[in-house]
Write a structure and sequence with these properties.
globular; Rossmann fold; 2 domains; 19% strand; binds S-adenosylmethionine; 11 helices
Length: 277
């Protein structure tokens, strides 16, 4: 899709960033990296990748800034409500009628809101005791800070910023007090809900392979990956799913090439698929 040619100093920067901060730039699309580098370059009012590299090499703070900026971790509770409606009304009831133990993976979980959203839905469906007994949710992310945040499970609601207005995001939940200790604008996940979820620092590309899941959500993560890597990842997800397991993608993501043969569509609009065979 992206036909743009990038100058040699772009590729030198890409390589340098990998060596310097250990961020695997090879996994990401040039268009995505270009946008991110350009945004950081605007901060310094410079217009060559080489000039940015000269700054980056010497400035540890900028290295951290770039690392944070490359792993953007925007997320919400119940992001894309209609997908969660399908999960609540169809997917989870089906899984819970078929299986005694249900294992779910939120791959690229950011600060944990996706994993906790699913945990709340499981509790709504099964009740707390049963959900604790029957459901295990793994949240994983490459970004250590996000994982630490997820483990803390503390979120600040800012009603004037739509993306952080937690009350609005929790519209699925009749009684948020069941899941959160709420103090002023701070929402802290209760320990009994945390018990259902476990967070791990994990790189989807180079990390150990995972198995035995009944549902995998990998949403708004692979959009930044190049196509080759997306294909490898979809294959990994196929292998990681049990028979009849579900795969949930982000609203703007699609399966392509051979990976389309691995899954059948369960709800096309919501990007929910089922493992074939
Ligand atoms: C935009 S967030 C999506 C969060 C959540 N899944 C959602 O849809 O709301 C993307 C997350 O993917 C993570 N990520 C990027 N590359 C990754 C990789 N190679 N392995 C694991 N996580 C990765 C980022 O750190 C970030 O937290």
């Amino acid at each position: 899709m992206e036909e743009r040619m990038y100058p040699p100093d772009f590729h030198a920067l890409k390589k340098g960033v990998k060596q310097l901060i250990g961020f695997n730039t090879g996994q990401y699309k040039d268009a995505y990296l270009g946008r991110r580098f350009n945004a950081r370059m605007r901060v310094y009012n410079i217009d060559t990748y080489h000039a940015y590299w000269e700054i980056l090499k010497k400035d540890q703070q900028e290295q951290q800034q770039l690392r944070d900026y490359l792993t953007i971790n925007v997320t919400e509770f119940f992001r894309d409500a209609s997908a969660y409606e399908c999960i609540q009304n169809d997917v989870l009831p089906m899984l819970s009628s078929e299986k005694e133990k249900i294992r779910i993976w939120s791959a690229g979980s950011s600060d944990g809101k996706e994993a906790y959203s699913i945990a709340m839905m499981c509790v709504e469906l099964l009740g707390l005791k049963n959900a604790q007994k029957r459901v295990k949710i793994i949240g994983s992310d490459i970004d250590r800070e996000s994982i630490e945040h997820a483990r803390r499970g503390e979120y600040i609601s800012k009603p004037n910023v739509p993306q952080t207005d937690i009350i609005k995001q929790l519209r699925f939940i009749k009684n948020p007090e069941l899941y959160f200790n709420i103090q002023n604008n701070i929402y802290s996940i209760k320990s009994e809900v945390k018990q259902i979820v476990q967070f791990e620092n994990h790189d989807l590309i180079s990390g150990i392979k995972k198995f035995n899941f009944d549902m995998i959500l990998c949403r708004n993560v692979v959009i930044y990956f190049n196509r080759e890597l997306q294909k490898i990842l979809y294959n990994d997800f196929y292998n990681a799913l049990n028979m009849n397991g579900f795969f949930v993608m982000g609203k703007t993501e699609t399966l392509f090439g051979d990976s389309r043969n691995l899954f059948e569509s369960y709800n096309t609009r919501e990007r929910i698929f089922k493992r074939k065979y």
